[in-house]
Amino acid sequence: MKDNQKILTIIILSALAGAGIAYLLSTEKGKVLLAALKEKGTQMLDEIKDGLTTEAKEVVEKIKTCVFETVEKHTTNETPV
Q1: What Cα–Cα distance (Å) separates residue 67 from each residue in 35, 46, 62?
Q2: What ranges do the domains of the chain cover?
Q3: How far apart (Å, rounded) are the C-alpha atoms in residues 68 and 76?
């Protein structure tokens, strides 16, 4: 198959797929499916945000610990002037 024929085939198949998706989403079942996907996506994003928040808190606590340990080490090792 020549390159031009491959490109034309891809364009036609893409157009058919797009038309099929548009038809599906315009039906009642498609609207229900779309609403379910949006809800599930929102739930997943919330879970990801919560997970990142937990991870971020842990990192901040580790940084605080390192900073406090470093400050304590340097203040206890100072020689009086």
Answers
A1: 48, 31, 9
A2: 3-76
A3: 12
